[in-house]
């Protein structure tokens, strides 16, 4: 959880802002205490999606691609 939060601090230094997290229901996000720790330390909500991490990553990449194509 703390590595995840540290990585987020590096993104913030580059100008990114995390307002919420959507995550697949696997890996570290299966643990309620890890979800609550990350949410508290980042000050944002976490929405658990009914997908695996790889499916969620593919969906996020598609959304990002479509947003950039439409610009």
Describe the overall structure:
With 71 residues, the protein is of the alpha+beta class. The protein is 56% helix and 14% strand. It has helices at residues 2-13, 32-42, 53-69, and strands at 20-24, 45-49. Strand 1 (20-24), helix 2 (32-42) and strand 2 form a beta-alpha-beta unit. The N and C termini lie far apart (35 Å). The mean pLDDT is 88.
Question: Could you write a compact summary of the structure shown?
Answer:
It contains three helices and two strands. With 71 residues, the protein is α+β, with helices and mostly antiparallel strands.
Give the overall shape, derived from the CA principal axes.
globular
Main sheet? 2 strands, parallel
> N- to C-terminal separation?
35 Å
Helix and strand run: HEHEH
Number of strands: 2
Q: How large is the radius of gyration?
A: 13 Å
Keywords summarizing the entry:
71 residues, alpha+beta, 3 helices
Element layout with pairings:
Layout: H1 2-13, E1 20-24, H2 32-42, E2 45-49, H3 53-69
Parallel strand pairs: 1-2
């Amino acid at each position: 959880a703390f590595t995840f939060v540290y990585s987020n601090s590096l993104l913030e230094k580059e100008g990114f802002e995390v307002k919420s997290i959507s995550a697949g229901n696997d890996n570290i996000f299966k643990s309620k205490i890890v979800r609550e720790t990350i949410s508290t330390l980042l000050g944002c909500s976490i929405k658990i999606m009914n997908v695996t991490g790889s499916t969620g990553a593919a969906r996020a990449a598609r959304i990002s691609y479509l947003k950039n194509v439409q610009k």
